[in-house]
Amino acid sequence: MQSMIWTIPNILTVLRLLAAPGVAVMFLFFARPWADWFALVLFVIAAVTDWFDGYLAREWKQETRFGAMLDPIADKAMVVIALLVVTGFSGMNAWILLPATLILFREVFVSGLREFLGSTAGLLKVTKLAKWKTTAQMVALAVLFSTGIFKYHFAERVQGMDGPTIGAILSGDLPDEFFLGRLLWWQDATFFAGVVLLWIAAALTAITGWDYFIKAKPFLMDRQR
Q: To 10 degrees, what angle do helices 94-117 and 180-220 make?
């Protein structure tokens, strides 16, 4: 029945799908670092629903074709849009741009495979490794969103200070009343951790993409007469 589509798990999935563009919209309506805060909170909440909707659907036996179709779309929308935002505000940093490109390429490639396979696309079932891949992507992106928060809080607190004063505070020659050293440490730490996690996610993305290609390969071969 049509009314059965609107179960709580499916509603959570739809909300996660709607939250995906909301992450980018935050940077259009709010100044930084507030945009970073709102984007981070929205992204984390949406990522948590990714676990809850699947768990509730299985526990309550409310798994539907609608949910099975929409869940991976919502995941991909969240990751792709967040990657675009993070890559943009990182200034196209190569350490972020390269794994982001690999992740985007894989998502497009696998989506194309599924479309080509049509009714046989069921052989490309989501594996446990693919779920770990999605988790790694979301954790990495959440950490990188937090980098923007520390960066802009640091920028706010040094506004009006000259270079020598900032240097003296960071070196310990002047008292650090605004916790500049701590902010700078967290900025660097979250960036490093986020980049490492993003490369791990990219590696898992490449492995699962290759696995899907191997599974689909027999269906891509032209039959010889």
A: 30
